[in-house]
Amino acid sequence: MMHPLRKHIEELIDLTDEEFEFVLQHFEPVKKRKHQHIVQEGDFVRKEYWVVKGCLKSCFFDDEGKEHILQFGMENWWITDYESFIKKTKSEINIDCIEDSDLLYITYENRERLTAQMHKMERFWAKKSKYGRIALQKRILSLLKNSAKERYDLLLEEYPQLFQRVPKKLIAAYLGVSRETLSRLSS
Question: Residue 184 contacts by C-beta under 8 Å, 6 or more apart in sequence?
Fold first, then answer.
């Protein structure tokens, strides 16, 4: 059976068995329980995580203590505080597990080393970055131009599994609506 990370990578680039073994040497597995943090505001983030199994959320709290969800991370998704990871600044966000999660992480140094030694992986991360920017642009445009109902319907259409795995209050925080508004949208 093919390793899930290899399957994920090979959606964008081809790898030989030897190349994949070399790639895998740069990653470490970690298990986290529900509610455990992988990033806390103020941390210096040195790891990028790939979700093997589980569900995570990336969020921040405004001055009134209201939670805002930036991203969910499920199987085959990458998650970290990218500004902190790349620029070596303190994190402004929190990332924690919504479910028990199995993750693979790569440190910034290992990622740089891997891409320097294996240009296929440099191309892989360049493609992932492009797709990430597209997803971010779509999310921002949706927040700016779509009604709450349209945002709800788009999320349900694109990621129906989220609604089975994520509490409604977190879906509401992602959509930028109250829990009560979400109840009206889903009825």
Answer: none
* 144 in a structural domain: no
Nearest-angstrom CA–CA distance, 9 and 179: 37
Give me the number of domains the chain comprises.
1
Q: Give the pLDDT band (50/70/90) at residue 1.
A: confident
In a domain, 104, yes or no: yes
pTM: 0.92
Please check whether residue 184 lies inside any domain of the structure: no
Task: Determine the structural domain holding residue 66 and report its residue range.
Answer: 4-117
Q: Looking up tokens 């642009």, which residue turns up?
A: 137
Q: Which residue in this structure is represented by tokens 């009206």?
A: 184
- Mean pLDDT across the chain: 94
